[in-house]
Amino acid sequence: MKNTRLYILGCKIGCLFHKTLIFNVYCGAYGTITDALYFKTNETGDDFETAVPLTEGSLTVTAVEEGWLYSGTFTGEDGLVYDISCASGGGLRDLTAASTLMTDMLMDLTDGETCQAAWHGMMSRAHAWSVLVAEPDGYGDKFEITLYTAETDLNRGIPDGVYTPSDQRTAGTFFLGQATAMLRTGAWYTHNYRTGACDGPIVEGTITVTNHPDGTITLDFDCLDDAVWPHRITGVWTGKPKYEEDIVM
Questions:
Q1: What does pTM read for this prediction?
Q2: CB atoms within 10 A of CB 10
Q3: Beta-bridge partners for 178
Q4: What pLDDT, on the 0 to 100 scale, is given for residue 89?
Q5: Is the pLDDT higher at 37 or at 193?
Q6: Which terminal CB of the chain, N or C, has fewer other CB atoms within 10 Å?
Q7: Res 37 pLDDT > 70
Q8: Is 30:61 a contact under the CB 8 Å cutoff?
């Protein structure tokens, strides 16, 4: 693919649309190409020589250990057939998912993260807890979840259990992560760093709660985001939560 670049401007893709520059492929995507141009650069590669609309064809993206392999066969408006292939490193972002994570996340929850747990009393079918695990300075890993538990109170704290995602608000579940254009709800993981953040809704997996006799609890996260190829998010926090009562009337 020397001295060539492939731009895919719009695709029927089903599960993936990618707009990040990778090597010399722009917008590599699964699916059938519906609007694409094939550019050939000049000999020095610093300017375009021709631009040919592609009328049909497809691009196959294959994950390998080092990154991605791209191969495609296209027919141009000029009647010529263009065979294109290349390799690249880096990841692809699935823009049909709310998650912006690019890899599995192994959380280090031993850097001073605290846990705030607000008890809301009986809500719908179960007792509800809003739980936030985060570093006080705002950096690092953050988990926001709503747990639905069996009957409890502030003195007893969050009951033991293996909680699974659901949108039914029943005991033994946490509300799965969801996002709209205006609002995000349910369970979310966020990784904050000094120049930005990435996050994702939790839609699969488990959160295991162990309530210890000394008033501490252990939260064991083993979760997946909503990506087509889900990212695994794991980590363990142990400590004494800051409990508060927030009864919703």
A1: 0.64
A2: 12
A3: 185
A4: 54
A5: 193
A6: C
A7: no
A8: yes
